[in-house]
């Protein structure tokens, strides 16, 4: 233990060989004052990411687009041996669909949107109903599929996905729902799916009353746990994952609190109604 602590102290003090732990930076420090003064005098002008006006240069943009194309080809080749049953956003087909959806957002290429549809359809064929979160459960494929169909103007298909997403609410807020609250597998992860749909389709796609029920379930669960642990004064909202109190984003307080902060105005409204 003493040796490990010494290593940590050397890292903090800068006495360790940090060069071996980092990539070398061959570029000069940023000089805001020199931007656009005399770019043609620089022999490397045109090779840098930014042009004289501080915008991404056409040449660099072409390089980025070429690299994206290469990486997509590598990914598609690797997906030939991917798990055919992994429908998740986290590690599976829905995550690939989400990537193509983002590519369509920045490029407006119809082919990317079609690829997003192809992959999310593949995910939809393998839903199992065991988990309900955006990253690891059925809510992710359903939410992404609703958004893709919405962008393709397939209104009926989009509404069908949205309806199925909302049906999952019973297992999230029901009186007998034995569900954690964290982001990866719990209520906060389902809340993420609802907010994602509202952001992409429109603020009224998921009604506030639906979101309020999920938020209330998360708040009540946190209050009850805090009371059981006799920590209400120090931590009004306390959560556990497998009998342990985590603080991180995936299973702990950080992820849950972050999602609650996304609906802060709604929480304030709920608080006023209960006073």
From TrEMBL:
Keywords: Membrane, Transmembrane, Transmembrane helix. The gene is LANCL2. InterPro entries: 6hp_glycosidase-like_sf, LANC-like, LanC-like_prot_euk. It comes from Nothobranchius rachovii. Residues 44-56 have a biased composition (Basic and acidic residues). Residues 1-57 are annotated as: Disordered. GO terms for biological process: carbohydrate metabolic process; peptide modification. It comes from the Eukaryota. Belongs to the LanC-like protein family. The chain crosses the membrane at residues 246-267. GO terms for cellular component: plasma membrane. This is LanC lantibiotic synthetase component C-like 2 (Bacterial).
